Amino acid sequence: MAKSAATHGHQAAGGHGHHGDHGHDAHEHHIVPVSTYLKVITFLMVLLILTLLAAIPDLGPLNLPIAMAIAVAKAGAVMYYFMHLKWGSKLVRLFATIAFGFLAILFIFSLNDYIGRGWIGMPTPWK
């Protein structure tokens, strides 16, 4: 006996049936407890305070590396929890790591360009 589309609305809408659960685990959504989000938010707030405290004293050439290390820790927490990389497949993690690596390369080359401009000198105003 054929089952109606109303009985299996999920299948009629293009979903997968539950017979054998083929590939069901690949599309399973994780429900993250609120406590996890509260812990991550607390961690990010601690890093925010650390960023503010690190900006108060003049640490000379250490200012930039310290600020960048804190920023990378914040970005890592956001990617790992809020972008759900913790629960993602290895392929998703690989592509996120590659994207983050290319972003780091962009920052490194931009910083290299910025630091290397000291020898150019300032242009003279028009007369």
Global structural class: mainly alpha
- Portion in strands: under 5%
Largest beta-sheet characterization: none
Our measurement of the CA-to-CA distance between the termini, rounded to an integer number of angstroms, reads 92 Å
Helix-strand string: HHHH
Shape: flat
- What share of residues is helical? 55-70%
Low-pLDDT parts are 3-24
- The mean pLDDT is 79
How much is the radius of gyration in Å?
25 Å
**Annotation field: number of helices:** 4
Counting DSSP E segments of at least 2 residues, the number of strands comes to 0
Structure, explained:
With 127 residues, the protein is mostly helical. It has a domain at 32-113. It is 57% helix and 0% strand. It contains four helices and no strands. The chain has helices spanning 9-12, 34-55, 63-82, 90-115. The longest helix has 26 residues, at 90-115.
Task: For the structure shown, list the relevant keywords.
127 residues, mainly alpha, 4 helices, disordered N terminus
Outline the secondary-structure elements:
Layout: H1 9-12, H2 34-55, H3 63-82, H4 90-115
Helix pairs in contact: 2-3
Quick take:
This protein is an all-alpha fold. It has helices at residues 9-12, 34-55, 63-82, 90-115.
